[in-house]
Amino acid sequence: MPEPGKVRYDWTGFSRKQWGPVSVVSRYNTVEATVGHATIVLDLTDRRPLEERQRSPIATPFRDGVPVWLNGRRVATVRRDPTSPFGLFVRWARKEIAGDPGFVLPGMRLADRSFPGMTSLKCDAGTLVRTNVLAAPWNGFAWHYTLPGISFGAPCVAAGVRPEHIALWFAIRETNR
């Protein structure tokens, strides 16, 4: 069993973007993404009882809820929508976000699709951050067959989006690896 805090990989990119750079550190139990002065940490620790972990060794952290930390303060929980499809091909898997109203915008949610890998962070006002549709197939190839951090296109970020929401998008995207 790997050490929980041990770094799997890290990468930095998008330094030329107006909202950049972004720095991502992936550990065996957390994913950390930093944009500007905002650092988002997703705690992916398996919280199931020991008996359940022995029966079913594959963890599904979003089913039970993943805590979101912003600069050391817990601000939200991301949970898989129980009525959501799995997110293969055409169907999009949905994740609900609940927590501190200073961080969570009204109606904030995530949508994922596995093939090609696409992630969107949305709220009632519209899409905040989404995968660049034209780059998605190439990014999927790069993620599976090259080093972490290789990307063929920056995500589409709406005007006025706060750095912590961009960092949340990168952290969630990194959990799809």
Question: What are the defining features of this structure?
Answer:
11 strands, single chain, alpha+beta, 177 residues
Element layout with pairings:
Blueprint (H helix, E strand, L loop, with lengths): L6 E7 L8 E6 L2 E6 L2 E6 L6 H6 L5 H4 L1 E5 L2 E8 L12 E7 L9 E5 L4 E6 L2 E5 L5 H10 L10 E2 L5 H13 L2
What would you say this structure looks like, in words?
The protein has 177 residues and is of the alpha+beta class. The protein is 19% helix and 36% strand. It has helices at 50-55, 61-64, 136-145, 163-175, and strands at residues 7-13, 22-27, 30-35, 38-43, 66-70, 73-80, 93-99, 109-113, 118-123, 126-130, 156-157. An 11-stranded antiparallel beta sheet has the order 1-2-3-4-5-6-7-8-9-10-11. The chain is globular, with a radius of gyration of 16 Å. The relative contact order is 0.17.
E-strand count:
11
What's the main sheet like? 11 strands, antiparallel
- State the helical fraction: 10-25%
Order of helices and strands: EEEEHHEEEEEEHEH
Q: How confident overall, as mean pLDDT?
A: 85
Pairing-aware structural class of the strands and helices?
A: alpha+beta
Rounded radius of gyration (Å): 16 Å
Please state how the strands of the largest beta sheet are arranged side by side: 1-2-3-4-5-6-7-8-9-10-11
Beta content comes to 35-45%
Note the total helix count: 4
Distance between the termini: 19 Å
Shape: globular
Question: Spans of 5+ residues with little confidence (pLDDT < 50)?
Answer: none
